[in-house]
Amino acid sequence: MAKEAADLEIAILGDGDAPLLREMLSVFSAAFEDPENYEQAQPCDAYLNALLGRDTFVAVAASMGGRMVGGIAGYVLPKFEQVRSELYIYDLGVLEPYRRRGIATAMIATLRTVAIERGAHVIYVQAAVGDAPAIALYDNLGTREEVLHFDIESRT
After folding, report:
1. For residue range 108-120, what is the model confidence (pLDDT) as tens digits?
2. Three-state helix/strand/coil letters over the chain
3. Where are the domains of the chain?
4. Would you identify the CATH topology of the domain 8-141?
5. pTM for the model
């Protein structure tokens, strides 16, 4: 891994940070090469601020030199079988020129603190079978489970 950048700043976004969450959507669009899903139908600021104000949503931003270069969007999921929660990393992206500098690891370290504060006993994440860099990152941080993922359309 390349040397971690000295000017890396990690922030947890909150209510009122809609412009920063919008910037994170642009980071995800570039990192995942998916502008259709991340830029073409973005919600209004009121929606984004309401989302950021919920204790069930988490957004962690990584910036260098005043530019957002990475982000995590996650959800705290209350469980029913015990009084506890799990934190699901829905998206984690770092812009290509900033990868392999420890940014994702630093964001996950911050996310661990949030998970504890919000009563989550575990953080979990999915990775695509062919995404070797993501799999290597998560292998270094956690325990791998082999599962299948299915999308079931809500409309028939």
Report:
1. 999 999 999 999 9
2. CCCCCCCEEEEECCCCCHHHHHHHHHHHHHHHCCHHHHCCCCCCHHHHHHHHHCCCEEEEEEEECCEEEEEEEEEEEECCCCCCEEEEEEEEEECHHHCCCCHHHHHHHHHHHHHHHCCEEEEEECCCCCCHHHHHHHHHHCCCCCCCCCCCCCCC
3. 8-141
4. Aminopeptidase (3.40.630)
5. 0.84
